[in-house]
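Lecture notes, unit on protein representations.

Consider one protein chain, 860 amino acids long.
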Amino acid sequence: MSKALIIAEKPSVAADLAKSLGKFQKHEGYFENERYVISSAVGHLVELVPPEASEVKRGKWTFAALPVLPEKFETRPIEKGEDRLRLLKKLIKRPDVTELINACDAGREGELIFRLIVQHTGVKDKPVQRMWMQSMTPDALRQAFTHLRSDEEMMPLALAAYSRSESDWLVGINGTRAMTAFNSKLGGFQLTPVGRVQTPTLAILSEREEKIRAFKPKSYWEVFADFGVKAGEYRGRWFDPTFKKGEQEDARAERIWERLRAEEIEAKCRAKIGTIEEEKKPASQASPLLFDLTTLQREANGRFGFSAKRTLQVAQALYEKYKVLTYPRTDSRHLPEDYLATVKSTLASIKDPSLARHARKVLDSGWVKPTKRIFDNAKVSDHFAIIPTGVEPKNLDEAAEKLYDFVTRRFIATFYPSAQFEVTTRITTVESEKFRTDGKVITDPGWLAVYGREVEGADSDKALVPISGGEKAQTLAMEIKDLETKPPARFSEATLLSAMEGAGKLLEDEELRAAMIEKGLGTPATRASIIEGLIFQEYIARNGRELSTTAKGMALIQLLRGIGIEALTSPELTGGWEAKLKEMEAGKLKRKDFMAEIRELTRQIVEKTKNFEGDTVEGDFGELDVRCPKCGARPLKEEYRVWRCVSCDWRMFKTIAGRVMSNDEATALLQNGTVGPLEGFRSKIGRAFAATLKMNVEGKAEFDFPDRNGDGKGGGGEAPDFTQLTPLADCTVCGKGKVYTLVQNYQCENTFGETPTCTFKTGRTILQRDISSDQVLKMLATGKTDLLHKFISKKNRPFSAFLKLEAGKVSFEFQERKKAGSKPGKPAALPPAKPATKAPAKKPAAKGKSRKAAPTAATD
């Protein structure tokens, strides 16, 4: 009997399909009954083959080998999935398997995963159908199975998937190699990844960083007055009623640019009587739209501090594992027009008491209506908004519980009426000077009721004390505030996602965002990985909730602008490609036309880089306000590759051992003669190491390795000259030596020599946190420091801990949880110190396997 093979994207989905579609017998890696075989991939199993895959050498990173523009893209198995690919190939080629069903995730990447697998097997004569799943509940899976889509219907999506993959390959491989070849001209291998989407995203962050660096604060003053009336007091802020927004970006009606003018107002109005005008008018705020993935990521970042990647991971688990949310990788914020009955049943199924009463009110009030604001087929493509499925959530972890509540609360609130306010504007005039006071009172919470008092408090100011008709105000007190303009804020993941969605434009208005959504950078499903990729490649850094561009990231954008490769520095231009891929998905654009454009872009990147004259790029990169170590002149001029003295021939390269130094690091080095230790240097064989930089007598930067000073290795090594150092304390570990403050460590003198007799050593900086000598003294005396904050984990997350000294070793001890019955935190060993000069010995390659080369390009 002939059978159909169903291929899911993950094993868990394959198991869910087997449970939902009937009785299946389980085998190793697949399920089977008399009519169907169900198996799965484990994500991507096949990739496009990079050029010279068998011998990636530095000699290949030259302009002579570029551009690489294959007519046909070859594929190869991804090493970690080879066993699964062999199983699928065997199942696909079984004689009794006569048709294939794609049950991978319902989107562009799911389509690509399936088609690359089938393409790699060489099987072309078995018909294909598509299972399109919006939800993972058993009923939804059965419904998707009874409405399979034809291969012809899915072909436009497949062509867009191939085009996205190949365009990323062309731009990533060629762009990365061209930029690397340019940056390696002066010696040293400087890998410089670029990508079709990630680099324009980096350009958004770099432009903001440039504005912050160029910002010069200006002083201004604001004048406040406290007024008294019969019912109480209120405060007003002075403003200029004739103010009009002009060319001065920092100008505001309430800002005064001269201290003397502020003092004049304060003296003029002090203790005087003022007249009052007041206007009250109603205002409303409509309920928010449903979540798409980008909006969910943006708001979860602001509300919970979740990264975009974390939000996607949790939402995917709520969809796939717990079955409580619909498909999360969507760019729609609307529902199908025939979904009213489903919405009502979902609202009725909500059991959580804090949510159920609001859901019941929606149903009882008849608020589920066929309005285009929520139900609109024109704004639903392959997926609709993220909403709960009606399955009761069970055994959710903390993050999943937060996100499920967040989505469900939004789902309920969307059907509520607008919130109603009374907005009061009170103008108090004293001696012809105007003071403004605003008040906003909720008269009907509407949808805000779903969010309780928390949102109400954020959106509602205190009511103003009432006044009677014709009443006058007594000026009780005056205050002048000295203020400064602030630079633009750095992006958070929330604001960066918004900028990516608007192709570089920060759009707060929901309708404007919807208008730009077709031209955004990347897709809702890829934006999180783009941000994480930029962090991994050290182009940007995550500091708490802020994202900042590193010196390496700034250098890449400066280079691209200097060479004139606009397509990789213009988010709006790049966003147009995503719109074209969507047109291809809709069958409105031919694949060959899109790929011809990408190939031409690839040629331009290589040719412009190859033909660019000189070893630097033009541009005003700024200055360092420090003295030249050779002639003493200041400031130093910044160029693309170097900092240079304008009065003599001194210069210092920005890139040292593959690491780009920031302006702050260079300033510290030139002012103090040393900086570090710094992470991220690369040896000639590509090994990462850390080191301190110091200025030598010739005014040049050189490495100052910790072990050369005798404090890099816990035992052995040459000891420093302790006669030139002041001891910090007696060592309580060995009881015989003194503890000294060395370049990188606090360390007992007895840890040196051929036969060390002590083990006490702890870093002056641990996980990016400076450790003060006072805390080391306390640890030596009591065995433990105070609770120290702002350690930064390997995942860039801040945490707090004690440093504990036990058996001669220093470890972390975490604060005892406040929950009843909890146990004290277990001490955790500190990360071992990494030698800065000697790379670890290579492990012998396993028999039959070679060591993998470093990635050759960044793709989006």
